Amino acid sequence: MPRNMQDYEATRGSFSWKVPERFNFATDVVDRFAGEGDGMALIWANAEGEERSFRFSDISAASRRAAAALAARGIGKGDVVLIMTPRIPEWQIAMVACLRIGAVAIPCIEMLTAKDLAFRIDHAGVKGVICRLSHAAKFDGLLSAAPARLSIGGAAPGFDDWDTALANAPADIAPAEVMADDPAVLYYTSGSTGMPKGVLHAARGLYAWRGSAEFWLDLGPGDIIWCTADVGWSKAGTSILFGPWSMGACSFFFDGPFDPAERLRLLAKYRVTVYCAPGTELFRVVDEEIAAHDLTSLRHTVSSGETLNPVVADRWRQRTGIPILEAYGQTETLMTLLNYPCKEVRDGSMGLPMPGLDLDVIDDDGLRLPACAEGEIAIRLPVPQMMLGYLHDDERTRAAIVEGPDGRWFLTGDRGERDADGYFYYRGRRDDVISSSGYRIGPTEVENALLDHPAILECAVIGKPDQHRGEIVKAFVVLRDARELTEQLVGEIQEHVKASTAPYKYPREIEAVPELPKTQTGKIQRKALRDLEKSRNSELQIQVSKANAS
């Protein structure tokens, strides 16, 4: 049973954000729970079988020393610290340490290259870096303006050893006074188009993100949540660190490669109560021998970051008895549309607005559209979980906001519909929508139909330029078991899609590929596939021109 919301309509009608004037996550959350029961905050394990566990008091003490070590190296309120680690406890400790002294943290994944890091360091004006010893060399020549450098696992040239720095630091440090609108964390998007965008969030955002942990994740003391997101993704903020700890819950943190059978073993071993994973992960896990694992502690399974295929959701529900609660959010806002434990779950739906938020589908003039009309999903401002803006890009920030008759709206860039009961349905990115012979086709619906075919493991759908139709639907597919894409199989797949959705949406072209292009956070890059088709088309036009000239 859900513990935090029994009546969605009543809760939404009476909800108030109650954002405090000042909010320091380190003192107002971590130190608070350290003094109120001091429950488990973090359980960590890795693929080698090592384990570590931390109560809130352990995180509090370690983050105080880490904050003091940073302060001794010149880091203060407003300074930017880049934190690049894998899924290890030092990530949480470093993040909380920065927040304690009012520094702005940039969480990063270790797959970033020196070029990626150079951009972030220059763009954000980084003053400090925390990374593992094995990755310190990536920063060679990049840190002339960054006096604070700590490496985990030993000292590196130009870096102080993390453990030694903390051992030599004072056991306590005065926390910074952090106002609600002070910058607190900076996320960089995956950069699927051009250079990455720096999305700057305020302390009020960290406070407000507890909403999804309360109403969607349904967390409280005694819960153990396993969110498998990497630390550089904003999802880690809401479902690994800020959200769960704001509710007094414990996070399970696993550093190891993805293995679907191992996922189930760990869920059972650590008695995980809430499992949060992207649809591509659940797609693999659901085909394992679920019945062989004791998942009786599992209360909720949730998913976000990419549209969940209804077939996967149905299989998971049949094999575990637990529905998958999907949610929608962005780096700029974090979770905004949720499927709730207390409400009917409608497969394929993005869910209902989170209490405190006014989301709707609007037209280009900022007018609310009627039910079942497709338009842009937008959030009426102001809301506390909204970003401060894109760092050093006021023009882009302004372009994301439109004035409507009843207020200012933040444009998500995603298209969708809202049904008569208020449930939202995703129809694709603004630039992903396919226009074919006058029809507007969202790629997600076609992809869902394709994934229901037994021969297809993964897929991505784009619009391919076409002289007669404007665009046609083209599907790139990864086939199961090294199958060949024969003409017969193409026909079978096309007929399958025609039977699953409106026939005009079927892919007129299907191409088999060994893998799909993805961002560093695992999202499929349709733009890369569109660019591939454009380059092919340009090359074909050059060849035709040469042939005509001859």
What can you see in these coordinates?
- It is a single chain.
- α2 (25-35) runs antiparallel to α3 and α2 crosses α4 (89-100).
- The radius of gyration is 24 Å and the shape is globular.
- The chain has a domain at 447-549: GMP Synthetase, Chain A, domain 3 (2-Layer Sandwich).
- Helix content is 31%, strand content 27%.
- The strands form five sheets. Strands 1, 2, 10, 11, 12, 13, 14, 15, 16, 17, 18, 20, 21 and 22 form a 14-stranded mixed β-sheet that branches. A five-stranded parallel β-sheet has the order 4-3-5-6-7. It has a three-stranded antiparallel β-sheet with strand order 8-9-19.
- With 550 residues, the protein is an alpha/beta fold.
Please give the radius of gyration in angstroms.
Answer: 24 Å
* Structural class designation: alpha/beta
How can the largest sheet be summarized? 14 strands, mixed
Approximate strand percentage:
25-35%
Mean pLDDT: 92
The CATH homologous superfamily of the domain at 447-549 is named ANL, C-terminal domain
